[in-house]
Design a protein that fits this description.
154 residues, alpha+beta, Aminopeptidase, 5 helices, 34% helix, 30% strand
């Protein structure tokens, strides 16, 4: 599989939004349908040029995944469902840690696969919020790279 990683460009906006929605519907089974619609309306207003967004592109399928980084925080990682489990999330996360200096991520507690994924990379929970940033009852785990992982980057 030939994957290209490149910076976000507005010509990919519709594809990014479709990947976000497909990914959330596939991985966030703890959300109610009306909540997905609520978050979708918020995501549709995001200016992806305001932070560092990298796209995973396939020659035949266009955008198959993306990450968004602001300062040292991984703000988003989403993959098309048919590309999950193929190492693309690992490539994007390694890029975020090694090149974009990511040391923190917030993750839905109910997304246990994502929690395990970030633990694999050395992220450890340091705090928990019983509500998400929109005030909805979806607990958020605040995670950061362990000291040994951060030292390993130096």
């Amino acid at each position: 599989m030939n994957i290209i990683i490149e910076r976000y460009d507005d010509r990919y906006r519709d594809q990014v939004l479709k990947v976000w929605e497909a990914s959330v519907r596939d991985t966030h089974d703890f959300l109610h349908a009306e909540d997905i619609d609520f978050y979708k309306a918020i995501v549709e207003t995001i200016d992806f040029n305001q932070f560092d967004v990298r796209l995973a592109l396939s020659e035949h399928d266009g955008v198959i995944g993306f990450i968004g980084v602001a300062e040292n925080r991984l703000e988003m990682l989403f993959l098309r469902p048919d590309y999950r489990g193929k190492g693309i999330g690992k490539v994007l996360t390694r890029l975020a840690i090694d090149k974009l200096n990511v040391t923190e991520v917030d993750v839905n507690e109910g997304n246990t696969n994502a929690v395990g994924f970030y633990k694999y990379f050395g992220f450890e929970q340091y705090d928990r919020s019983s509500l998400d940033s929109s005030g909805k009852p979806y607990p958020i785990l605040m995670m950061r790279l362990s000291d040994s992982e951060i030292k390993g980057k130096s």
